[in-house]
Write a structure and sequence with these properties.
This protein has three helices and three strands. The protein is mainly alpha-helical and 108 residues long. It has helices at 10-16, 23-30, 51-94; strands at residues 7-9, 40-43, 46-50. The chain has one domain (7-94). The model has no long low-confidence stretch (mean pLDDT 74).
Length: 108
């Protein structure tokens, strides 16, 4: 039984992944050492990628996305800590949060 692969241009593959026409091409140029060459045909500007190749890219983009989102989450945590520290500093010295009257904040 033969598994007949469908082949797509890189622009078609980009659209299938929900991105602009150069997405897969740019992604592959950044990750050319990792991508299995048997999932691609052609050279230069004329390249085709198999269905399996599109799935491979999709799977590896997800992994990269997790790493990116984790690093931004760490950045958000540091920002939140800095803001919270500033707010706590204001409360400590003034007894209230900036922008509220002393009658509207109860510190019990």
């Amino acid at each position: 039984m033969t598994n007949k692969q469908k082949w797509h241009s890189l622009a078609q593959a980009s659209r299938e992944l929900g991105h602009g026409r150069n997405y897969v091409s740019a992604w592959l140029s950044r990750h050319k050492e990792e991508f299995p060459e048997e999932l691609m045909l052609g050279s230069g500007k004329s390249k085709l990628i198999s269905d399996e190749g599109i799935e491979w890219v999709k799977k590896h983009v997800k992994k990269e996305g997790v790493l990116v989102s984790n690093s931004s989450a760490n950045g958000d945590w540091h920002l939140e800590s800095a803001v919270l520290g500033f707010v706590l500093l204001i409360i400590h010295f003034t007894g209230r949060v900036r922008g509220t009257s002393s009658n509207s904040v109860s510190l019990t």
